[in-house]
Specification:
468 residues, mainly alpha, Fumarase C, Chain B, domain 1, Fumarase C, Chain A, domain 2, Ribonucleotide Reductase Protein R1, domain 1, 3 domains, two-stranded antiparallel ribbon, 8 strands, 58% helix
Amino acid sequence: MSKKFRTEKDTLGEYPVPADAWYGIQTARAVENFPISGRRPDSDFIIAHVRIKRAAAVINQSAGALEGRLAKAILKAADTIISGEYHEEFVVDRFQAGAGTSHNMNTNEVIANLANVALGGKKGDYRPVHPNDHVNMGQSTNDTIPTAIRLTALAKLPRLLDAANRMADAYETIAERETKTVKSGRTHLQDAVPTTLGREFAAYAWILRRSAIQIRETVPLLCQIGLGGSAAGTGLNTVPKYATSVSKELAKLTGEPIRVADNLAAQMQSMHDLQQLSNAIRTLALELTRIANDMRLLASGPRTGFAEIQLLAVQPGSSIMPGKVNPVMFEMLNQVCYQVQGQDHAIALMSQAGQLELNVMMPALGSALFDAMDWITQAMNAATDKGLRGIKINRDRCRELAHTSVGLATLLNTSIGYSAAAEVAKESERSGRPVRDIVAEKGLMSIAEFDRLVERAAINGNITPSRR
């Protein structure tokens, strides 16, 4: 059966639009122009942009610029979309015309058609509600798109922060349980002084919480919006006090401390706020990469590696080696973190690529930021649920490696001095004999005394110097 179309007209002439579509001619043109990624707009972004249209309608009606019945129909249409309906009508590819005009018109057309049908009109007639004259009243792509990107980021942040803190909680729980699990420390991937697995994992928890705090600190920047600047930050065609009023309305809609920026033009030229958020997410990704690599090292084995921890087996590890289990959740986390770092690099390039009054790279910049936030959120949750929870600590293996480590010679510094301790370390490395056996053989202390020294040093970090 052939698809049916209706004909709409814009400043370029006539164009066919699918008969059942709630979007209109400018959206249809964009669909044909940009068959690039096959990826439609982010759902949080759709909602954020529609909230801007809703807030604008409220302020324009209160100022007497928008007729009450039209405003009511726009609000009803907006609320329907915000609730999750009609998202399939937002069809413009993420890589599109600069600045996001195509998405802006997609939103305007869907809201206008929904409002007109509710008022007894037809799709595509744009009477009595017009996409530009009424839904887009007092607005421009220049100010709605950067504002929508900020609102989208604010919507995603709680989920991202929750994921980071959930992972930190999981590490902290293990750390508290393993405060006395002595193991060998390693620096330069070589034997070092004894530590505890609790201390090691507590450090992971701490750095994740600090990264979350640094991400949260970008919220005040994201809340400073340029909506009301209209075209090029001029405030053209806006009602009196529109910028301040619409910011307050958006604060009500989002529950965030939204406020009008001190310089509206700057918020269209500069992507500084978004870059700051991306920087903080990149830092989290770098830390997660390091932590994931540590987990893979600690779980290496089961016979020829560290094998100090055993991760939950969630799937067979090999198509050819029977019984093999791989650290797949942390391998996945690594891959996501590398991709997030790539998104940050793209955001940096696009941030500096704006010219004069507008950054036209915003559609792809926003998409890269949204992807980074979603991917790292989902990856942390998956790694926490299927990587950390259910982890087993091989305490016997930790103790075995700790008590055979060449790094234990460091504990002798305060009793026999650095040079003599170095000789013990060299002898241990050369002969393969444990430091404890060499110490006992030299009459420095008994094996039992040395073992107690190791435990005390690992757990408390304090050693009472012996008299010489």
